[in-house]
Structures are given as C-alpha cells and as structure tokens.
Amino acid sequence: MKAQSLVFIIFAATYIAPLCAQTQNESDAVLSVQFDEQLQDDSEKNAAMKKPFVTFNEGVTLAHITRLIKQDDYKRSNFVWQNYLIGLYFEMQTVRMRPFNSLFRVAVYYPFKHTFNGMNQQAKQLLLYAFDAYAGFFWQRDMWKYIRVNFSVGPHFLYELSDEYHHIQLGGALLAGLELPVAHRWTIINNGIFALDYPNLGSNRSIAPYNLAWEYQLELGLRYSRRENVYAYIHKINKNSTSQTDKAQPSVDAPSDSAHSAADDVQNDNLQLPVNDVPAAPDTKDEHTMQHLADDELFSSMQR
Prior knowledge:
eight-stranded antiparallel beta barrel
C-alpha cells in the first residue's frame, strides 16, 4: 500500500510540475508584454512632450519711423521726417526647436500723421500704406512662472508709400517684451521693437537720400493655443475660490456623523413618547372595592 501511494505521488508530481512551469512562464510572458507596452506608451508621451511645434500670435501695433538728412556742411539744423503708423501684425513662433527657436513677423500699417522738423504735414493722398517683415532667433525666459521674457534679434524690412516716394528700407532689429498667461489657453503679449535700417533702396535714393533711418514699434497682442498654459492667473484664482467654497459649504452627498445622530434622535422621539406624558387610566377596581366595603360596614351597623 505504501509503495502504491509513493508511486502515485511520484506520478502526480511528474505530471503537474511541467504544467505549473508552463503556467508560470505564460504569466511571466503576459507581464513582460504589459510592461513593454507601458514603457512604449511612456516613451511616446515623452516624445510628444518634446516634439517641436508652432504657435501663432496676432494683435495691434503702433510704429514711429524717423528719417534723417544731416546738414552739417550747411551749418543748419538737420532735416527730420517722422511718420506715425497704426496697424495689425501676425507672428509665427516656434517652440522646442533645436538649437534655437525662431520668430517670423509681418505687419500692415496705415500712416495717420506726418511731421517735418516738428511741423505737421497734411497728406495729399488718401491711399497710403506700409508693411514690414521681421525674422530672427527667439529666446524666452520666465520670471516666477507667471511672466515670460522675450528677446529676439534678426533682419528687418520695411516698405512705405508716401506722397513723394516709395520708401524701401533694410536693416536689423531687436525685439524685447513680456508674455502674461492669463488663462489656460490665452496669453497676452506686449513686445517692443527697435529697428535701424538703410533707407535708400527706394525711389528717394537719387533725389533725397537719407543718412539714417530708425523705427520704434510697440505691439499688444493675444495668443490662443491648444496647448494649455501650465501656470495661469485665472486658473489660480478659480482654484483658490473653489477651495474656500468647499470649506465654507458642507457636502450634501456625505452628511456628517452629527447629522446622522441628530436625525436618529428626532426619529426616536417621534416613535417613543415619554412615560410621564401618557395619561394614566382610571383604576376602576379600587373604586368598586371601596364601595363594597362601605356597604358591608353599613349593613353590619344596622344589624347591631
């Protein structure tokens, strides 16, 4: 009997051991596949987070153009022309580009004021316009996560139609400004541009060549991005107000223990009346007994 039991145990171990090993191998293979898929998903997410993309900005801009002709040889004041322009601009900006990000900007203007040596000049034509283009390297740094500082340098081109000439200028420009992330997807942009150009590429080069020309620009723009801002003013305000509201108002879905106990007490009071408040039933038995004793005593006195 012992020999048969021993043979049965050896046979069972020989048959079950490979099955257990196979099951363990299959579970290990499943875990390995799941781990590889998780690593692949994480790598894809990291790659997507590091992938470069493009943002677009638009807004209004003001420009001030100064053109100068020196009169040192004639011992008199210089000739200075100044134009004031208002317009719209459009920007395309790259993010996470290697080794540098870039910025491309186009603006269209309408000149609304002209001066010569400080004296206002009335334009003879109504259809006056100007446009400029700028492209350069772009750097951005943040201050306390809620203010971004922009800086860019690159070539600048300007065309302006005036009453006398077709002005064509080419030179370099510097851009500096701030970005304020006001909401999840909205950002306010305030940049300033200073350009120093060579002004004698247009029709004025043979009649009135300028010695120098420079330009100031101030732009106020807005950006809507599908990628949410990590830090935003409105998001922070909403979060704080929500937390304060949650602290001030108790939750309706999860009543407190004190509320449960108060409800239970009210229910018990409605179901059980106090003993003292229940009116006592008249004891008829005692009244009959007293009447019967009084009748007996009267009957006994009459017999005497």
